[in-house]
Amino acid sequence: MDILLQAVDLVFTPTVLLTILLSGMFGLFVGAIPGLTATMAVALLVPVTFFMDPLPAIASIVTATAMAIFSGDIPGALLRIPGTPSSAAYVEDAYALTKQGKSRYCLGANLSFSVAGGLFGCLMLVLFAPMLAQVALRFGSYEYFWLSLLGLSCAVFISPSSLVKGLISLLIGLFIANVGLDIMTGYPRFTFGSADLTGGVSFIPAMIGLFAVSEVIRGMSVVGGLPRLPHQSGSVFRKVPGLFKRYWKNYIQGSVLGVFIGALPGAGSDIAAWISYAVSKKLSKQSEKFGKGHIEGIISSTSANNAGLSGAWIPALVFGIPGDSITAIAIGVLYMKGLNPGPMIFIQQPETINAIFIIFLLANVLLLPLGYLAIISASKVLAVPREILMPLVLIFSIVGAFAINNSVFDVGVMLVIGILAYVLEENDFPLAPIILGMVLGPILERNFMSSMLKSNGDLLSFFERPIAAGLGVATIALWFLPLLIKIWMRHALRNKPQAV
């Protein structure tokens, strides 16, 4: 109790509370701009943390991250342009709800379940950090290979169109991910002699092109003017209690997956959101509605988003191993401030650790009022005539693509992939598997090559470790599940008694 009271005294000071408030507003602003991710928000804060004490510095990173992950949902729902990679998992459902006049209903669910998922993750961080970190450390190249392969398999199954088209889209994403230098040998692949392509295709410009540019092209190609979106009405929170009552299992499932996958070094909340969406679709009794404006997948994924943020801090605090790119930056700030993450910090500075836990709690609670104000303010965007809005979207997309690497080449990449995405969507090919292929392709290749080198080419080594074997069996079972279901249904129909 004494340690807890000391932690409260450390947090509830004007400096720390003001830092949390200002960082929250900054995170909301950055996350809502397509192309500026939560990682970029944290990176932009690092120079400011040089002049802060340790606790306000960490508070700024934690708060900005939580806000930016949620606010990435806002352009996804209103404009079909995901603000963060994790928002891309459910952007089709969110935008479909906006076209039905239900953007506030959708964003209210996003906000409420983001807060609830963040609080769940905070609770797991407080209660089970050392235990979950021990499990996470058991993941080696074999486990990461199967986890990434499982995620890629899920990408095909979440496709709203046919499995074949989903598979083709996934292969396109994997092809784009393979552009650049070979991970093991450094040999250039598919660069066609271009020096700009040796570093690969930048993910953020590609994502902006897939969703933003393709939407602008679609709007320009409409004969007779752009279609008007229906009037967006209703309360932000009115239906939220009913959603918690009906979809509490999806909330638990998404939050648990978010914490567990977020705690795996290098995985992060992006992969957690995609896998949670796929699991929700496979377990749903209304899976045919996914991708067409169904709230169930949104609830699962958005719960996983913010729960995954807390999960990523588990290996960072317990072992000093970053769970994602954000915690990698945070660990650097901790070292800079003389707070060496690892087991000893829990013994030597328990009041600081408890203060960080309290900051996580405050950041997620503060997300509710600030997120509400952001939703109400952003809804005004839909009142702008689309003939004016779409050129503005294109301008912001160009700025966002250029800002990642200060490269005009990235703007060209965005435009080319935008045209490709438009052609694919016009022929009913889904875009979500392309995104996941680009995210998980390098992880899959890197861990496959590392595993093959360690085992001298023995494929059975992928099943020798218990966790790897479990993930491998689950992945292979997922591949054959549709075939087994089809055989079972055919067998059931054959044995069904014929009516006389």
Describe this structure in words.
The structure is a single chain. 72% of the residues lie in helices and 1% in strands. It is mostly helical. Helix 5 packs across helix 6 and helix 10 packs antiparallel against helix 18. The longest helix has 35 residues, at 103-137. The radius of gyration is 23 Å and the shape is globular.
- Large-scale geometry: globular
Number of helical segments with 4 or more residues: 21
Category from helices, strands and their pairing: mainly alpha
Order of helices and strands: HHHHHHHHHEEHHHHHHHHHHHH
Number of strands: 2
Integer-rounded radius of gyration: 23 Å
Low-pLDDT stretches:
none
Biggest pleated sheet: 2 strands, antiparallel
Task: Tell me, rounded to a whole number, the average pLDDT.
Answer: 79
The fraction of residues in strands falls at under 5%
Could you name the key traits of this structure?
500 residues, single chain, 1% strand
What's the helix and strand layout?
Elements (H helix, E strand, L loop, with lengths): L1 H10 L2 H18 L6 H12 L4 H18 L1 H7 L11 H9 L3 H35 L3 H17 L5 H16 L1 E2 L6 E2 L13 H18 L19 H7 L1 H15 L5 H16 L11 H25 L5 H12 L6 H6 L1 H29 L7 H20 L2 H19 L5 H23 L11 H29 L6
Helix pairs in contact: 1-17, 2-3, 2-4, 2-17, 3-4, 3-15, 4-14, 4-15, 4-17, 5-6, 5-7, 6-7, 7-12, 7-14, 7-17, 8-9, 8-13, 8-20, 8-21, 9-20, 10-18, 10-19, 12-13, 12-14, 13-14, 18-19
